[in-house]
Amino acid sequence: MLSVICESPGVLRAQHSDTPVRAGGEVLLRVSRVGICGTDLHIFTGNQPYLQYPRVMGHEFSGVVVEADHDSGLAPGDGVYVMPYLSCGHCVACRQGKTNCCVDIKVLGVHRDGALAEYLSIPAQFVHKAEGVTLDQAAMLEFLAIGAHAVRRAEVSAGQRVLVVGAGPIGMAAMIFAKLRGANVTCLDTRSDRLALCKSQLNVDAAVAVGPTDAEQLASLTHDEFFDVVFDATGNIDAMNRGFGFVAHGGKYTLISIVPGQVTFSDPEFHKREMTLLASRNATAADFETVLEAMRAGRIPDQALNTHRMRLADVPEALPRLLETGQTVVKALVEC
User: Fold this and answer.
1) Cβ neighbours around 158 below 10 Å, total
2) Number of Cβ within a 10 Å radius of residue 67
3) Do 206 and 320 share a structural domain?
4) Residues 6+ away with beta carbon under 8 Å from 327
5) Are 271 and 152 in contact (CB under 8 A)?
6) How far is CA 14 from CA 2, 6, 19, 313, in A?
7) Which one of 150, 245, 300, 317 is most buried, counting C-beta atoms within 10 A?
8) DSSP character string of 108-145
9) Are residues 153 and 134 both part of a single domain?
10) Who's near 124: CB < 8 A, 6+ residues apart?
């Protein structure tokens, strides 16, 4: 089979290898679509803290069942999506239903080889029928579920003022699900093209460009009170530290981003606000179901979010171009 491996930062190579042999309890999939996300780009550029090279990337994907156990509930030909967070099921987090932060988590495409390949065999408990959605949509579930998880974790409610810093795919996912909960949503980003897309496709209430007057604009939008909930989806340590200043008294700050290094903040400012600081990692089965329900109801602008496509064989040449200046990339899908 054909696969694409990231041998080291900046080096991608197409290779041929044996099709995996399905073990008992696993499902052999013919991979259909793979979404390229910020994690993959960080792996390519050498900025992913949990990874060892070489690695076959790809954790956002859909496929078609080739082989499965008879008692798995899956049959050859079924279209499926995959929860790529392979959790142990028995650690302190898993026992609480928090499989997204399993102590011994193995994320496909990060801790073990992922979906930039024609075939993949994975444990059946992480494979689910993609009923009522296309295989394109099924490959976009994971990044949307991360946004849905963050919004659920922050307990966003109708009428709240929400700020999402970072208008990449994950930030956009948080905007979508905050809007679906009835919040008033503002986005903050450096790029005018992404801000325009958030206004036209996601119907955010305000879009502010990072610049000398952005804090004043955010204050004006909130009558100098700032935001009940702030999400950071930038992957930038300076932006993460700065975001503490945008949280209202009594508000919540949710870090979806993960970066190497130390997040720092003023303790007096933190305490006088009685601020709640949250980390949001991955997603759970319930979050995937939330996204599926919204997709089936036509409430996700998935076609507008899918801005780029490429073939698996073309990934070594096409993926680096996603990083070029001027590319308005939201979600690129690889056709396998």
Assistant:
1) 8
2) 15
3) no
4) 308, 321
5) no
6) 7, 9, 15, 7
7) 150
8) BTTTB--SSBSEEEEEGGGEEE-TTS-HHHHHTHHHHH
9) no
10) 25, 26, 27, 68, 69, 72, 74
How high is the pLDDT of residue 50? 72
Provide the 10 A C-beta neighbour count for residue 258: 15
Q: Are strands 276-279 and 247-255 parallel, antiparallel or unpaired?
A: parallel
122 neighbors 71 (Cβ within 8 angstroms):
no
Residue 169: burial class (beta carbons within 10 Å; 0-12, 13-18, 19+): buried
- Within a domain: residue 292? no
* 285 inside domain: no
pLDDT of residue 162: 98
Number of other CB atoms surrounding residue 134 within 10 Å = 16
Integer Cα distance of 76 and 66 in angstroms: 5
Can you give the pLDDT at residue 3?
Answer: 97
Average pLDDT, consecutive stretches of 10 residues, N- to C-terminus, the chain (336 residues): 95 95 97 94 83 93 97 97 97 96 95 96 97 97 98 98 97 98 98 96 97 98 98 96 98 93 94 98 97 98 96 96 88 96
pLDDT in tens, 196-215: 999 999 999 999 999 999 99
Return the pLDDT at 261. 85
Q: CB-based contacts of 75: which residues, under 8 Å, 6+ apart? A: 65, 68
In angstroms, the CA 62 to CA 82 distance is 7
Distance, CA of 316 to CA of 101 (rounded, Å): 31
Listed residue (145, 174, 173) closest to 253, CA to CA: 174
* Domain carrying residue 170: 146-279
Q: Please choose, from the candidates 303, 307, 263, 258, the residue with its C-alpha nearest in 3D space to the C-alpha of residue 282.
A: 258
- Say how many domains are in the chain: 2
Whether residue 35 contacts residue 61, with contact meaning beta carbons closer than 8 Å, is answered with: yes
